[in-house]
Amino acid sequence: MKKIALVLLCLGLFFGCKDQGIDSQSFSSGNEVSLETQQLSQDMDKKSYEGLEDIFKDTSLIETNNKYLLMIFGKNNCKYCDKLKDEIKRSNRVKEYIKENFSAYYVNISYDKKHHLAFIDKKEIKQADVATSQLADGIYKVFSTPTIIFGDKDGKTIFEIPGYVPEERFYKTLEFIVSNKWQKGRSDKERLKILQDFIEGK
């Protein structure tokens, strides 16, 4: 909770949608599900980032490709998720910066699909096959949407921001990650203070 308060203090007031979890009743289980139905289930989330397919990669395989990691957890009917995606769509500089420097993923927690993590995440897992619910609840502890995860080139979490971030602050945060200035901070608190100074041009 202290970590979240620090993020909110550092970056200002943010808005997000409370996570209601994944509706597991919407999905079948068992061997009777056809391969075609399974594939449709795996692809349902792609509509979530329609128009941003050049930015966000298919979350079936989540890897860094020797770039920084950017993961945005969102869900259906989350107005702040939609606002963040709309701002990314409208800003060529944000889109180009993400494409050049980040392996970016939009994970819609309204659907439960299978993901293969091909990097070392904050729990020191080297390789893992996980469901969306495990990724959001078990690994990243997502409690509101959007939640933005920034990771290094090994996939280790640098820090996370629960809530919507306006375009200018979002862009400055992307620059901050690429600058590697966050490495000077030994704790979340120190990193967030360095980020605040970076955003304010200190």
TrEMBL record:
SUPFAM superfamilies: Thioredoxin-like. CDD domains: SoxW. Pfam families: Thioredoxin_2. InterPro entries: SoxW, Thioredoxin-like_fold, Thioredoxin-like_sf. Residues 63-174 form the Thioredoxin-like fold domain. This is Thiol:disulfide interchange protein.
